[in-house]
Amino acid sequence: MSSLPKQLRDESDFDQLPHDIPISATIADIEEKKGFIDYYRFVMEVRTRGGSKYLIYRRYSQFFNLHSDLELKHSPGDQGTSGPNTCRLPTLPGKVFIGNKKEIAENRIPELNTYMKRLLGLPTWVLLDDDIRMFFYQTESDSQHQPRALRRLRPPTRRVKTVKTNQTDVFSSPRAEVVFDFSGSGRLELSMKAGEVIFLLRRVNTDWLEGTVSNRTGIFPESFVKIIKPLPESDSDGESGGASGKGAGSYSCLRCYLLTPQGVDTRDVCVEEDISTQPSYKELLARMRDVFKVDGNIALNYRDPEGDLVRLLDDGDVALMVADGRAQRSKVKRPVNQFPWELHVTAASDLSVYNTEI
């Protein structure tokens, strides 16, 4: 009998919740994000107390950070003592450090769905927690992104009607012939062999194009191909279109230099990130190792407004580099989809390059 008043009180509390409070969330799909570090994020459909639905996109690391914050605020103490603001939180699936990223993300879906169901089934006062509300809030970036697929929202018995279409006239399509072999340095870049014909999709910026060949799609430098039929003008304006980083398929480019005793190797690294993104030090270090194929100890550096080469050591230094780059953006003319900062990669023990001019 004692549980009945509590149940009625909880139902009354629920009825008084604001309409924008999330009450359920389900993972609809996963999407690969090709940024400074390639990772998978979960496409989630959220339902609110008021009956609205929307999609959000979250990484596992965001689940982990949310759970850590909630544990600090709401978990019972070491002695198991409970208080007015404590409750038993659901168990979050642990981190996985080794394995195929896609398989790890797919295997996490049932566990994360259970976690969200139990989290949003906690007492109503927990649902008002700012961390929970912000985690399930649809940001501007969420609302502008178009999902590539929503496999898990479709009924399993759905029948898809096949529509026959006329085969595209390949000779009318924008295309280019590969003049020099090109080996892509990441998943975004399209490896090509001389003599292949690349069908052009769009221009990324003044130097890079996006195209497809043999069921493979990616970006590549225009200097490696000979244009047979150019892109229409509307698809060639890479300086204005696709530079905002919003939506699927948009790229931003980072100018990088590898400084060695033999000279300077310059690369434009394109990532599926907005130019306002601030990557972590570890992400940049891993990406530069992959881009320049170096196995030894390397150091990351940038040039400050005075022209001096400054070494990066942690995330705080990255934040200073990004801030300096943004401050100098009006003084240094770059394409609108190019990051306002550049990286200079050196051997970790090499200090002589600090007087090298690029």
UniProtKB/TrEMBL annotation:
Domain PB1, first and last residues per copy: 251-348
A GO molecular function held by the record = superoxide-generating NADPH oxidase activator activity
UniProt-listed InterPro entries: NADPH_Oxidase/PX-Domain, p40phox, p40phox_SH3, PB1-like, PB1_dom, PX_dom, PX_dom_sf, PX_p40phox
Q: Which residues form the PX domain?
A: 20-143
Where would I find the SH3 domain in this sequence? Answer: 171-230
Keywords from the UniProt entry? Cytoplasm, Endosome, Lipid-binding, Membrane, Phosphoprotein, SH3 domain
- Tell me the superkingdom of the source: Eukaryota
Among SMART domains, the record links this protein to:
PX, SH3
The record's Gene Ontology biological-process terms are: phagocytosis; respiratory burst; superoxide anion generation
> Which is a Pfam family this sequence falls into?
PB1
A Gene Ontology cellular component where this protein is annotated is: cytosol
Q: Where in the cell is it found?
A: Cytoplasm, Cytosol; Endosome membrane
Q: What is the protein's membrane topology class?
A: Peripheral membrane protein
Q: Which PANTHER family match?
A: NEUTROPHIL CYTOSOL FACTOR 4, SH3 MULTIPLE DOMAIN
This molecule's function is given as: Subunit of the phagocyte NADPH oxidase complex that mediates the transfer of electrons from cytosolic NADPH to O2 to produce the superoxide anion (O2(-)). In the activated complex, electrons are first transferred from NADPH to flavin adenine dinucleotide (FAD) and subsequently transferred via two heme molecules to molecular oxygen, producing superoxide through an outer-sphere reaction.
Protein name per UniProt: Neutrophil cytosol factor 4
